[in-house]
Amino acid sequence: MRYFHETLIVVAFLSLLSACGASPPKATHAQAPTALIDREILFGNPTRFQGRVSPDGRWMSFRAPLEGVMNLWLAPVGQIEAARPITRNTGGGIPAHFWALDSESVLYIEDQGGDENWHIYRVDIASGRIQDLSPFAGVQAQFIAQSERHPGVAVIGMNDRDPRWHDVYRVNLATGERTLLARNDRFSAIHVDNNLEVRLATAQTQGGGATVYRRDGDAWRELLDIPPEDYFSTRIVGFTGDNSAFYMVDSRGRDTAALARVNAATGESRTMAMAEDADISDVLVHPRTHKVIAVAANRHQRRWQVLDERYAEDFRVLAEQSGGDVQILAATLDGEQWVAFLSPSDASPVYALYDRQSKTLEPLFVTNTRLAGLPLAPKHNEVITSRDGLPLVSYLTLPVDSDADGDGRPEQPLPLVLLVHGGPWSRDSATYSGEVQWLANRGYAVLEVNFRGSTGFGKAFTNAGNHEWAGKMHDDLIDAVDWAVARRVARRDRVGIMGTSYGGYATLVGLTFTPETFACGVDVVGPSNLNTLLNSIPPYWAGFRRSLVAAIGDPDTEKGRALLAARSPVNRVEAIQRPLLIGQGANDPRVKQAESDQIVGAMRDRDIPVTYVLFPDEGHGFRQPENSMAFYAVAERFLGECLGGRVQAIGDDFTGSSIQVKAGASHVPGVAEALAN
């Protein structure tokens, strides 16, 4: 029931126009009649999002705008016209919510200005009363579990005693009263069983792996070890119905992670399901019996494998009615209705409800109704081979007017944006992306690459990225650019690079380590100095810091510091030849503002132009739609000047935004004027 994980700048400088051409280039396909999609449609609030059905199947909830702010709404299932708001947030909006298992209340999370100090709130659907279940300033709460066997109760972790560690509490949802279940002084995670009793805990090892412990009275006993190479591909899923065993996605002893059943007393493991070409990504467990129904693996698209044959027909019908990839988010307690998420790459995502009795998949709602009929572009599955032979699962999106045959190859080479995902322990997928559609609509080919270090493709692929930040991980991106140029997808002199978090770091690496490859770069919350990055992580990351160090480099050793310094873009700013745009949230707890301040300061010291955009009420990326629209308005004009794509006027896209341009406003046409207005 952890829905939190369902849970983003610079310029065509006049002095650098020689890097992009003597004058702003003309798009070779600029005469195409494709309609320009308004940025507000792509980056504004969706119509509705994050559909949920109550565990008893009576209610549906979702996030939707209320006076421009994303709030929670409630309606009887199938009666969307009867929906009413149950929260009235006027700040940054509510990012995620889920149901209490007794179907009497909805729980949601909220932080302040992107600081990620999440509080957990309860809304009583009968009275409308809202209560903060973690009412402590500066504290981060983590939802751990709830159980049908204990209605009205949740298990929540809170780090109010020690900011590094989350103690585990049993919380009464009606009163907010909490009872300590386990004090935590070293564990990155603590797990409870279906009786809400503390049973397991995970602690990092010095080498970056982990040890799973079982609770034995007041003591903790070692149960099993997770080697460092398995850390990013092994996780505990939940307990069996009788609490004698637990399910674990487990890559130990194999490359791709399988689903295993592990004896909770002995640690003995039995493999239940696996795939040869990808990790198990999804595990569908019956919410009442706690038996596994099916699992999915996702290489290019999600593929379901049924473990309980009583559900085989359901998955056949789902595949037929969904038209392809379907994600199952949750089920009612009786297991008879499933909330599904359908997200084709070239249409608005849809939340739907599958009914096992009628064998029908009925939409709950379309997330963005304004996308209907617009010229959206499909993603094409690609596999690019790296210079040392690794398969890079990738996605190529082309402007709709450039690929008349629909074969994923344009009639003539295009300007291209290499869009790099964050993490890096994450992945790109074949689903809808407003950012991808924006770029394609403006006339760019868009290439998303799952470079080494990405997760989901086996642990060997993930671990191939260890100590390779700005090394072989970057080589993979360069190999992808070469692939696109060789296949006449991209123009060699019109390739830009853009990304958020690790993708922002990759952008800075692109402009400092390979300064002639990219015509320009857009970095959002990207670290510039790996030593300061690792020394300024949030205190509650203490439980997995050793895994970060094992993968990136160790700032506590001389050798590690030297490696991190060598791979830090801030130490190579003198190599920058091409326009750079940087975007940052002032409250970012992961990649702090100092990371952007450092490289901007170093560039200014060397009289290298840069445009720096800061949002004082944002954190790790831009959550508020007013800020997203402001940033993308700047980025669009920046990319248009450098790469020649189509541009929508900035207009009033700064209205309501907290945007501050700390450097280089005059370098991007229209920005200074928009700020003045």
UniProtKB/TrEMBL annotation:
GO MF terms, alphabetically ordered: serine-type endopeptidase activity
UniProt superkingdom: Bacteria
One Pfam assignment: Peptidase_S9
InterPro entries (alphabetical): 6-blade_b-propeller_TolB-like, AB_hydrolase_fold, Peptidase_S9_cat
Protein name: S9 family peptidase
PROSITE patterns: PROKAR_LIPOPROTEIN
BP GO terms, sorted: proteolysis
Ranges where the Peptidase S9 prolyl oligopeptidase catalytic domain occurs: 432-645
Swiss-Prot/TrEMBL keywords: Hydrolase, Signal
SUPFAM superfamilies: alpha/beta-Hydrolases, DPP6 N-terminal domain-like
UniProt organism field: Parahaliea mediterranea
Span of the signal peptide: 1-21
